[in-house]
Design brief:
The protein has 208 residues and is mainly beta. Helix content is 10%, strand content 31%. Helix 2 packs parallel to helix 3.
Length: 208
Amino acid sequence: MIYDVTVPITNKMPVWPGDPPVQLTAESHRSRDKSHTVRLTAIEMSSHTGTHIDAPFHMIDSGKKLHELPLDVLAGKAAVFEIAGARSLGPTELERLDWSGVERVLFKTENSKHWQDGKFYEDFVYLDPEAAEFLVQRGIRLVGIDYLSIDQFKSESHPSHFVLLTKDIVVLEGLDLNAVRQGEYTLLALPLNLLDADGAPTRVILTK
């Protein structure tokens, strides 16, 4: 079974407040022999639109850039943990989970229900910095969550980002895990191959 957990990119999708809005503009021209129409789309958007990867360089001056991330981190076994009813993910929520052999983790929360709201959802579930440190101590290499940031909305210092990115832990944000149950999957997360970038939209699939 293949699950596409990528949010579709559209002109009406929610984006982080202050980020450039998505602008997909259809364009076309007639072929030189006038026999058919050639269609294309002009694309304008942030590197952190929808489902995307944060490279350490996103917030760490000396951090790895997108093209420097090892591909073996972006492909392999991943655990999806469903945590319902939590306002944030702290050590209490994480300690009760089975971390045996886990290197990549995706958190399914109430956030996944809000992709269809038609607007940005401010009260999304986020990762506490203490929980981020918990993940560092367990050798996690990739952390994913089902909305546009692992830090709380309007966070001034982005503490969870710093805990993870300073350790070169890949952050995968903006997942849609509605159709996915808790369990072990094979993850494939391939960002656009942008040179020297801080992040990029990413197509993410899970197989089971």
